[in-house]
Write a structure and sequence with these properties.
Blueprint: H1 2-27, H2 29-33, E1 39-40, H3 41-48, H4 52-64, E2 75-76, H5 80-86, H6 100-106, H7 109-118, H8 130-141, H9 146-150, H10 157-163, E3 166-170, H11 176-184, E4 189-194, H12 197-209, E5 215-219, H13 225-228, E6 234-240, H14 249-259, E7 260-271, H15 286-303, H16 314-324, E8 329-333, E9 341-347
Helix pairs in contact: 1-6, 3-4
Bound molecules: S-adenosylmethionine (SAM).
Length: about 350
């Protein structure tokens, strides 16, 4: 009992720090403190252009939580090793952006509690910052490794992209992965579909500013993609973290199969897990992923009248869905640095 009590107390502290790290990331406090000599709350607040009273209280949480150092409670210092994981300057792997999911989920807690009682789901419109947070996540997890690690998972794919093929990204969000490919492979043509008008406008505007002419984005509900997919239109279809939270992953996958040429390839990144809950007990981020699933991925699907398979639908169910959609050759791959995802390389022909 004592050990479990200690664990709960530790959980209170870590959960609270999760929220405060998100605030530090969003307000630029970590960027301000990086490479800075020990400074007072006043000096840090002025440099960050923030209210000193709030900054001082935040420093209280950061210092007692062991993220910021202070000997005298007057001057504060962010160690370089911590700064490397809390800021985005390309020098280290930033993880701080992921804490934004806690505030996002906290914002809908009342509605999720109501769903526990009455069923149904919480729609995307209740998550106003979702696409911004997702794009931060995508830039760090997909875009940073796309060309070097993810595309080579399918042999010959990089060469085909260099030579020129037609590519569709399903559930493209703000389009960071697709825009990178469009820049990297000017001979290929890229199309992105997503339900969100806000995400599609954002992606279109950025592509226009970047002067990309081989890319287009279309706002589109893929819930009936099995029926309205353009037949044999693409050589490569990608889906980054975008199948499990669809209303109808089964229909979307059937549509992808239909839209793919017979010798095409579907590259699908989705959450790496087992379909059995107990088999995920040693998953390094199991509780995090089931929570994000319950309070976002599963509920947005249910809100569309969908299946709500959830982020942790797991490998077995994913393979079953891919098989039923008509993919006869599916390989599951991993990347060493990625503890969150599996990569499925699926082809129509055996
Ligand atoms: C977890 S996000 C991933 C976004 C993007 N691929 C990325 O990695 O940043 C899932 C995406 O699926 C889209 N989506 C959900 N339901 C959809 C539907 N019925 N039709 C089309 N897109 C949908 C969402 O708008 C969202 O952008």
């Amino acid at each position: 009992m004592d050990a479990f009590g200690d664990r709960l107390v530790e959980m209170f502290n870590q959960a609270s720090l999760g929220l405060m790290v998100s605030i530090g990331y969003r307000t630029g406090l970590f960027d301000t403190m990086k490479n800075r000599e020990p400074s007072t709350s006043e000096e840090i607040a002025i440099a960050a252009k923030l209210s000193e009273r709030y900054v001082r209280e935040w420093l209280g949480a950061m210092t007692t939580g062991g993220i910021v150092e202070s000997e005298d409670g007057e001057s504060f210092h962010l160690p370089a090793t911590h700064a490397a994981m809390l800021t985005e300057d390309g020098e280290g792997e930033c993880l701080a952006h992921l804490t934004q999911y806690f505030g996002l989920m906290g914002g809908v807690e009342d509605k999720i509690v109501a769903c526990f009682r009455e069923g149904g789901g919480v729609p995307y419109s209740e998550f106003p910052r979702f696409h911004e947070v997702m794009a931060d996540d995508s830039r760090q997890s997909v875009v940073s490794t796309l060309v070097e690690h993810i595309l080579p998972l399918s042999p010959g794919l990089t060469m085909a992209l260099k030579n020129g093929i037609r590519v569709l990204d399903v559930g493209c969000g703000r389009g960071y992965a697709l825009r990178l490919m469009a820049k990297e492979f000017p001979e290929s043509e890229f199309v992105g579909y997503d339900l969100s008008e806000e995400a599609i406008s954002f992606a279109t505007e950025l592509a226009r500013k970047e002067g990309l002419e081989n890319i287009s984005f279309e706002q589109r509900d893929l819930s009936s993609f099995n029926e309205d997919a353009p037949p044999s239109a693409f050589d490569l279809i990608t889906a980054f973290d975008a199948i499990h939270d669809q209303a109808r992953p089964d229909y979307v996958l059937a549509g992808i199969r239909k839209a793919l040429k017979r010798d095409g390839v579907f590259l699908m990144q989705d959450i790496g897990a087992d379909s059995n809950i107990a088999a995920n007990k040693d998953h390094p981020i199991g509780p995090l992923l089931y929570t994000i699933s319950c309070m976002h991925c599963m509920t947005v699907s249910l809100a569309q009248g969908g299946l709500g398979v959830g982020a942790m639908w797991g490998e077995q169910l994913t393979l079953e869905f891919l098989g039923k959609a008509g993919f006869q050759n599916v390989q599951r791959r991993n990347l060493d640095h990625d503890i969150q995802n599996y990569y499925y390389i699926a082809r129509p022909a055996a």
